[in-house]
TrEMBL record:
Annotated catalytic residues: 39, 85 (proton acceptor)
Pathway: Purine metabolism; IMP biosynthesis via de novo pathway; 5-amino-1-(5-phospho-D-ribosyl)imidazole from N(2)-formyl-N(1)-(5-phospho-D-ribosyl)glycinamide: step 1/2
Name under which the protein is recorded: Phosphoribosylformylglycinamidine synthase subunit PurL
Catalytic function, reaction form: N(2)-formyl-N(1)-(5-phospho-beta-D-ribosyl)glycinamide + L-glutamine + ATP + H2O = 2-formamido-N(1)-(5-O-phospho-beta-D-ribosyl)acetamidine + L-glutamate + ADP + phosphate + H(+)
Compartments where located: Cytoplasm
Domain PurM-like C-terminal: 191-346, 561-693
Amino acid sequence: MDYSKAGLRKEEYEALRERLGREPNDLELQIMGVMWSEHCSYKSTKALLRTFPKEGKKVVLGPGENAGVVDAGDGLGLAFKVESHNHPSAIAPYQGAATGVGGIIRDIMALGARPVASMDGLFFGDPEDRKSQALSDGVVKGIGGYGNCVGVPTVGGTTFYHPIYRDNPLVNAFCAGVVPIDSIVSSQTAKAGQEVLILGSKTGRDGIAGAAFASTELAEDGSGMPSVQIGDPFAEKLLIEACLELRDKGLLVSMQDMGAAGILSSSSEIAAKSGVAMTIDFDAIPLRAEGMEPWEIALSESQERMLLIVEPEKVQSVMDVADKWELDCAVIGHTEPGDRYRITWKGETVADMPASVIGSDCPEIPWASKVPSDLENRQALDLNDLDMPKDWNETLLSMMSSTAHRSRKAIYQQYDSMVQTNTVVGPGSPVSVIRIEGTNRLAAMTMESQPYLCWLDPYNGSAEIVARSCRPLAVAGAEVAGATDCLNFPSPEKPEQFWTLSRSVAGLADGCTALNCPVVSGNVSLYNETSEGAIFPSPLVGTVGFIECPSRMVRSGSWAEGDRIFYVSYGEPSLAGSSYLMKAKNLIAGKPLGFAPKEEADFMDKALATAKESIPSSGRAIAGGGLAVALAKEAAESGLGAEIEISMDRQDVSLFGEGGPRAIYAVPANKVERFTAIWGDRAKEIGTVKGDRLSIKSVLDLTVKSIAESWGI
């Protein structure tokens, strides 16, 4: 077989041949083409990912496992991770999204954790475009269809619309789970002399070589597309309970989800990480399709399967648990001393390579990097060229009804956000919050992405993403514990695009370092482009924090009559990359604000102090749409108006500018003195909650009802 047909570059083939000391056979070439693909090896980003901060006072388990774990208190850990399922969702939106949900749930299960919450990050084309409508409809139904049936609540997420995602939508799935810290199951603890088992669904031909497919651009004619995986949420529910029972009975040495590259990836990764040899007997694997060849068995991505490492004397007990939950289970191999990975089939050894070569030896690629030639033009923005709207009432209502800000109720109403009955704050709020059973704490979660900002300035745009994910947590009273990221980018092979990727990762790393937000897990999805062009740089960050006392949680949209409204700010915002500029002028331009770590840290400290003393009735970090949209959302959710008076140099910038640490608080009159003592001159009183109209003196005056209707709540 030609190595290039297997997906290997010449340099990779030569490195493989040197490590093996011989020519690889056809099966070995097919195996390595997938395992050394971008999707499995991260060969383009390994060097970049090393720059992320990974240590923190709450970190129990960082990158290198199926998910990260942070300390949730009382002996419990919160495991969480975000994964992409972009390419499959582009060709089969329902199953692509559904299996994305199932896959991320199994990543959490692999640590011995019970999945307790999901979120999703979705990027679609113009919602008025018929193809985009079909894709988004299928994706949302797939997420709901799988998540609702499997019994994990979908508590939040983010959705972004722009025509650039028409042919290449993005589907990023997040899951969090709870696990006793002393019961965490690792993928790195196998030892020689143990049995290898497969638990769950039978292996078929669905999803074969999906990892390699996700490592290339989407072809317009559909060529190279594999069959997309088919999910069964009811089988997954049984698998969850079975894995938890195996954990509780102490029957597991190690466990790994069978995701990308299926049996091959899960087994070779455990062998490589654990430093043991492994032999897998393909004749012992339960199949649901006749006549499957070894390469098909190795690379099948059939869903709802887990790989287990078990002590020989405990195998029967594992089988008994599998029988109880009506799941297939079979011994398919064993571990040995050494560094070999062997596959046997029909009594013969058909592949034999060092496990370390498969799992960790892919050569990294130092792609060429070049500043985009049009970057200066992108950042050019003269405010004097922007006409002011004639009617600010109409402008605010159009912003509230725009694709950037309109309520996502039509999406999240299709999800079960209350199953498990631990959801405190569900979809539609700046922060999603769940109870952690067995403790008095709450876990708070956010999800954030800013493609416009990253296209204009990948470094500062990405740092702003981190800040935007942390600010709402602090306002709610949650101390940040850690983050997970999904790097959605086009091909790294183009120098300008690799420069953007590199600068974006630098911004994420510096932002996380400055805000004490370690990155404990994540995913990379490259080659998100078609013949029509590349997506915007679209890194996504999911951040988790904890609220120690539920009674001190600060909600948004909970104004009370007579509350005094304060505007917290650390400087003027900017229209660069703002939703206002896009909506009003159909323009993506400007130089985003520079990241200000000291100001961000001070904002978070003061916000946490404000929540700890239970001062405000309501609080909202200002994000997309700026001050005006934040006030409008607070009024609409509260069902109360306000009289606002603020000084403005430029009304469009003051009302709709974005960026930097800023927030709106509603404070009862008897707590104003304490609030101002905390914030000092960073807080300015700008109005009072009263009546059923939101008015900004000499600018706009709208009924709360009209705002809510435009917003769609």
